[in-house]
Amino acid sequence: MRHLRLLIVSGLAISFLASTSYAAGNVTGTISAKKKKYLPNTIVYLDEVKGEFTPPKEPVVMDQKQMQFHPHVLPVLFGTTVDFLNSDEVAHNVFSPDETAGKVNLGTWAQGETRSYKFDKPCEKTCEAVMLCNVHPEMEAYVVVMQNPYYTMADDSGYFVIADVPAGEYTLKIWNPKKSADDQTITIVDGKDTEVTFKLKRKK
Ligand SMILES: [Cu+2]
Question: What would the pLDDT profile of 136-153 be if each residue is shown by its tens digit?
Answer without folding.
Answer: 999 999 999 999 999 999
